[in-house]
Fold RagB/SusD family nutrient uptake outer membrane protein.
Amino acid sequence: MKTYKIFTIAVVAILSLGSCTNFLTTQLTSSKTSDSYYQTPSDAATALVGCYNGLDLIWNSGVAVPLMAEVESDNCFGGTGSSDGYGYEMMDEFNKSVSPSDVSLFEGDWEAYYQAIYRCNTLIGKIGQVNWGKDTASAKTDEGEAKFLRAYLYYDLVRLFEKVPLITVPTMANVPQASPDSTYAQIISDLKYAAANLPSTPYPNVVNGRATKWAAEAMLARVFLFYTGYYGKADCAGFTKADALAAIDDVRDNSGYGLVTDYTTLWPAASAAKGVTYAGEDNKEVIFSIKYTGNGNYSGNITGNPFAIMTGMRIGAGGGTSIYPYAYGWGAATVDPKLWNAFSASDSRRFASITSITDEGLDTKYTTITGKAFTGDNNREYTGYYLKKYSPMCDSLNNALPNTNYLVAQPQDYFDMRYADVLLMAAELELGTNSGQALIDFNRVHTRAGLTAATSITLADIMNERRLEFAGEGIRYWDLLRQGIQTAATTIVANTTASYLSDGTSSPAITVANIEATRGFQQIPENQITLSGGVLKQNAGW
């Protein structure tokens, strides 16, 4: 792992020294170091902001993990432009021969995640150095937030790569990969600390965008379900099903969060297209989100949501045409028609989740705007369907929003944990032991979509409901994996429209064998393996 690079970046950012020579020869006389900086609660608060900033940047130089999860599930294809590289197709087909040069596709993610972890580790390690006075509660709160963020980051890494270096202190060492059990044990430990020490303030009095007791408890249940499902274990580092149910019940019953009435209002593009009022980024359904701004620019100040711009529709000459309310993007994760058809016509989530070029008349509007016949040829694996929830937007004059830098400054927050997920996790955990309550929880989500209440449910019903409820949010792939790699592989292949697997090139089909060979994990960046001197080992299947 490139720990030395992460350390250097952190030091240079703090000291702002002008050259390598000065860095090596000048004594530190006035600049603060990590040893001298952490003195006051204000210092700790500033460092905590840096931890959240690290979270904000994790997808800005690699592949957005929710986007990867949509592509590798049975929801979407790789997409992107017809003249782009084939990295997204390689992910979609679990086949490195599709794009042999993309051996370090996730390197930006690897570096950004470990840089963010470095910030969290530093703050956690320095909490005891701060002069808190009588404000010991703030010490526990700051540490709880930093541990929540560290757990969040490691949970992504362990699901992406399985065996990753487990680093809990700032270090320059070349750290080998840990067993997944060790990493999950650290995640559970961090989340339990966060749940026990973060305030139990209910919505709407929470500080939006900050980790809370409720977010930690919901994450504990999410981690439990994935780990025990994928690895076939009864508990996760001693955290049992009863523990998970108690945590998720606490969020459901005591957090103050709830469902918004109209599902469409959760999503800005869907709200604009339907002509309803957007519920806003801090609505009562959002338990935890990654906050973004629209202030980025092309000088390296990238603050936007990269997931959003990648999923924007790519139609017209050069793929650069916006049609209200949808601004153009890079055309990744084109939607498989089978996902569109999985929704009933009466399900409000279909319109809110997927943009249908034909059903919304966008092909006709394009012809009217440009005077040219509509074409989807600029988008590889064009299907006529795009993800809508995080679509970039334009105004009524088809000017992209929020500004001319919109391709790097998408301000829409990523909703990582919604109350609907809490309800469906509760239903899953209750199934078989408290089936009456499981049905109640399930139906709160199901009927909100405009569907008739179910009279009984199975685990398959819950999994299908999760697919429809969270389509386009980066959750489906993990739900498939936690049912076992064989189930995941056969489901992905069965639910994929074969005719869209190639755009006239030699791209091979998705196969059960390829998915099973990788066990669902990603290719560790070859550059990182080289930098580690071979300490890091590549995952099977890649």
